[in-house]
Amino acid sequence: MTELTNLDNVLSKKAKFIFITGGVVSSLGKGLASASLASILQARGFKVRLRKLDPYLNVDPGTMSPYQHGEVFVTDDGTEADLDLGHYERFSGVPAKRTDSITTGKIYQRVIDKERHGDYLGATIQVIPHVTNEIKDFIYSDVTDEDFVLCEIGGTVGDIEGQPYLEAIRQVAYDLGRDRIMFIHVTLLPYIPAAGELKTKPTQHSVKKLQEYGIQPDMLLCRSQTPIPQNEKRKIALFCNIREDNVIAALDVDTIYQVPVAYSHEGMDAQVCKHFGLDCGKEPDLSKWENIVNTIRCPEGEVKIAVVGKYTQLLEAYKSLNEALTHGGIANKYKVRIKWIDSELLEHNDPATYLAEVNGILVPGGFGERGTEGKMLAIKYARENNVPFLGICFGMQLAVIETMRNVAGIKTAGTTEFGKACEPVVGLMTEWDKDGAKQIRHKDGDLGGTMRLGAYESVLNKDSLARKIYGKDKISERHRHRYEVNIKYEDQLRQAGMIIAGKSPDGKLPEICERPDHPWFIGVQFHPELKSKPFAPHPLFVSFVKAAIDKSRLL
Ligand code: GLN
User: Is 357 exposed, middle or buried (0-12, 13-18, 19+ CB in 10 A)?
Assistant: First the structure.
């Protein structure tokens, strides 16, 4: 069976499709651009959905090094996806789903599964139509009552891996009709100081390349350090065959939350509406974004928080965390200054050299043994000096190990993740419940997609700090881990001053730990940073930043 299973569904729906491609160079912020466009369309009252199509061959980014690909974002339904999905959620508030992220690895996996199953009835399997059909079917899948589905194509036009995607979106315009489609191309206008000019040639070439694939962009979003003179816009419009009003300047801004406002001022949403023949008379209500930007620009104070981790060389690896701390700051009208500390540094020097000046310490998620001694030194410092501490996932596991080693006196306490014989306070999870069904894992199983992933509920202790912060007994948070604190150490931990403040509903998996003898010491097995939004800051981050502000006032 090679027909497009989801095409009829889309043909019967109203959704319009906006495809966002990138040209000239990578890292132009297409994800942010897509998310921002979605948010200003929302501000006009439209229902949006955002999707990412990644041309690389990995099935998902779950097994990629954070140095290679930055953070792995996790959705409620347990998909490990590109960090752009984080931008999408933070800007639109729409929770991303499994059907919002695809990679070439996944596409080929589907094609090969069908081939093995005999679905292609003896045909020779080719990139066109089999791979492109699979891409199109992804684009057409799970469309309901959205007004706009925005699909970002990863990579840069001209990449070999990207070609089937460009062919597929060209065909989408053919399948659905050009009036339901808009192609937006994000490019760069480099400024050449010697000439004192912005250069349009790379953009012209990039559009030519796109035209080679049969795609005529409808709008150009031109990243630029300086304002684009009207005559340059006119030139780009003429050479690229685009309406002048649809050459949109995307200038650098001081905070990413200014981007929706900036784009709207440039007329982007109005032009999108015009393109689709929609009413664009009324201005969108951008007050939500303006308020956020004002708070960021005029904070009442500043607080310093140390993030002690392993991937501090590449801040993309902690994208959501960085944002969630900013959101915690927004809620408190404070600027959060993050001091990124490579945990290995703490192993060779007195931790106080790095930590004495900070008002809060955060140990984020992570994998592998390298740098863990340094993280535990940071945790010990926070515990002993009453510095607010938040441990996320690996950070919670290490906080438990630190208490076991240094307070309970069990020096061999460790995690089986390090592979050494130790007191396995943290061990590999081999069985747990997911929506009533048992999940089973084995020591030598595949690494890809097999962690405890996505949203799980936790039940909070009545008189815990976590219960007070969340204001409810039951919460749902996103997970991504293979190891887990063993509940059988609960009593020993309690004697060492640490309580398990939240557990899985069956009571078997510790989800939150706290030290009641400390002003603010919380470890969580999940990733709260993934659900924080600038307009809905996560309560844990709000409270953590508040505790850090209180601490700064004591200093
Ligand atoms: N490495 C730990 C585990 O797999 C923690 C993972 C994380 O921090 N996301 O359980």
Answer: exposed
**If you measure from the C-alpha of residue 36 to the centroid of ligand 1, how many angstroms do you get, rounded to a whole number?**
31
Exposed, middle or buried: residue 371 (CB in 10 Å: 0-12, 13-18, 19+)? buried
Instruction: DSSP for 187-256, please give it.
Output: EE--EETTTTEE--HHHHHHHHHHHHTT---SEEEEEESS---HHHHHHHHHHHT--GGGEEEEE--SSG
**SS3 state at 429:** coil
Task: Give DSSP secondary structure letters for 309-330.
Answer: ES-TT-GGGGHHHHHHHHHHHH
Contact 87, 68 (CB under 8 A): no
Phi, psi for residue 199 in degrees, rounded to 5: -105, 130
Which of 367, 426, 525 gets mutated to test ligand 1 (max ligand atoms within 8 A of its CB)?
367
Residue 32 CA, chain-centre distance (Å), reads: 11
CB of 480 within 6 A of ligand 1: the answer is yes
Residue 280 has pLDDT above 80, yes or no: no
Average pLDDT over residues 289-298: 96
Q: Nearest-CA neighbor of 20 among 184, 221, 187?
A: 184
Instruction: Say what angle helices 319-331 and 539-554 make with each other, to 10 degrees.
Output: 70
Nearest-CA residue for ligand 1 atom 5 is 394
80 in ligand 1 pocket by Cβ < 6 Å? no
d(CA 301, CA 435): 44
Closest by CA position to 396, among listed 432, 358, 365: 365
Catalytic residue among 151, 273, 393, 513: 393
- Amino acid letter for position 345: L
Using a 6 Å cutoff on CB, does residue 393 contact ligand 1? Answer: yes
Question: Angle at the Cα of 196 (from 192 to 199), degrees rounded to 5?
Answer: 50
Looking at residue 1, what is its pLDDT?
Answer: 45
Residue 206 and residue 187: Cα distance in Å, rounded?
Answer: 8
Q: What is the mean pLDDT of the chain?
A: 94
